[in-house]
Write a structure and sequence with these properties.
Layout (H helix, E strand, L loop, with lengths): L16 H7 L6 E4 L3 E5 L6 E8 L11 H22 L4 E4 L15 E5 L16 H12 L4
Length: about 150
């Protein structure tokens, strides 16, 4: 099954921001790129060390992933989660993923959020400041020290 075979409504955007980031058409901080997946430092830090793990190939939802991509994404999420846990020394790790407009998906490219929980617990679902590339670059530099 894929998104085309389901009733999931995908958000409509001009182009794909994540594909543009990976292609270097738009600046963004890439923590790590592997053959089938990449980890990006989001400019909207909703938790501590907030990272996005995405497939390198454009896939709109988890329904569109093939088995190799799914396996690569899970492996990459575990790798990044361990680094976030060590870097942030947080009491928890939040991982979330949305598919479709009704699930609050805003970018039509599957992505998994990974963040250390905030000092009082949870993550910030309200308005958060957008960090500069210099700030996300510093987060990436610190996180890379904890990648195995």
């Amino acid at each position: 099954m894929n998104t085309a075979d389901s009733s999931i409504q995908i958000p409509h955007t001009p182009g794909c921001a994540f594909c543009d980031y990976l292609a270097g058409r738009r600046p963004f901080t890439i923590l790590e790129r592997r053959e089938l997946s990449a980890a990006l430092i989001t400019r909207e830090q909703r938790g501590l060390g907030h990272v996005l793990v995405i497939p390198v190939n454009h896939r709109e939802t988890v329904l569109d992933l093939n088995e190799a991509e799914g396996t690569a994404l899970m492996s990459h999420m575990i790798r990044v989660s361990r680094a976030v846990a060590e870097f942030t020394e947080s009491s928890g790790i939040a991982i979330w993923q949305n598919n479709g407009v009704s699930a609050d998906q805003t970018i039509p490219h599957v992505h998994f959020h990974i963040a250390g929980t905030l000092p009082d617990g949870g993550t910030d679902w309200g308005e958060v400041a957008e960090l500069s590339l210099a700030e996300t670059g510093r987060i990436a530099s610190n996180l890379r020290k904890f990648l195995p």
